[in-house]
TrEMBL record:
Keyword Transferase: yes
Domain of life from the UniProt record: Bacteria
GO molecular function: acyltransferase activity, transferring groups other than amino-acyl groups
SUPFAM superfamilies linked to this entry: Acyl-CoA N-acyltransferases (Nat)
Gene3D superfamilies with a match to the protein in the record: 3.40.630.30
Protein name (Swiss-Prot/TrEMBL): GNAT superfamily N-acetyltransferase
Keyword annotations from UniProtKB, A to Z: Acyltransferase, Transferase
Domain N-acetyltransferase: 2-149
Length: 149
């Protein structure tokens, strides 16, 4: 059974351990965070963006991270990451579905996200959960996606 809960300070070092290099950091956070990733950066970026960071536990083991940021009547989903040793088990899909449900519970009417164009696994997960390409695209290496709730 999986549980989505708010990220605590104790979770941050585990999540940072899933980001082994600058390329992985860019996949996780885009250009806003810098290598090497620190707990202070994670805390400061979430606070500055008014975001709530969530983690997913499976059988009391931390396996995933996602961040939700309120943007008017929508929520922006970002910083989605699964423990590299746990990938390929459907946990990314479960994490995103749980985050979308959390956004719905918060009264959002839409969830928006950006995904790297060269990340087909993530793009497939988002598509299977009802996300479609947004009409306006942000950057050449990113695909903006949206889902109405």
């Amino acid at each position: 059974m999986s549980e989505l809960r708010e990220r605590t300070t104790a979770d941050v070092d585990t999540v940072i351990g899933w980001v082994p290099d600058a390329a992985a950091l860019y996949r996780f956070a885009g250009p806003r965070l810098t290598w090497p990733l620190t707990a202070q950066q994670m805390h400061d970026s979430a606070a500055a963006e008014g975001a709530t960071a969530w983690v997913m536990d499976v059988e009391q083991r931390l396996v995933g991270h996602a961040q939700l940021t309120r943007c008017g009547d929508a929520v922006r989903l970002g910083r989605v990451l699964i423990d590299p040793t746990q990938r390929g088990r459907g946990l990314g899909r479960r994490l995103v579905a749980s985050a979308v449900e959390r956004a719905r519970q918060q009264g959002a009417v839409r969830v928006d996200l950006s995904v790297l164009a060269d990340n087909p696994a993530a793009r497939r997960i988002y598509a299977t959960l009802g996300f479609t390409p947004a009409p306006v695209q942000e950057a050449s290496d990113m695909i903006a996606m949206t889902r109405n709730l």
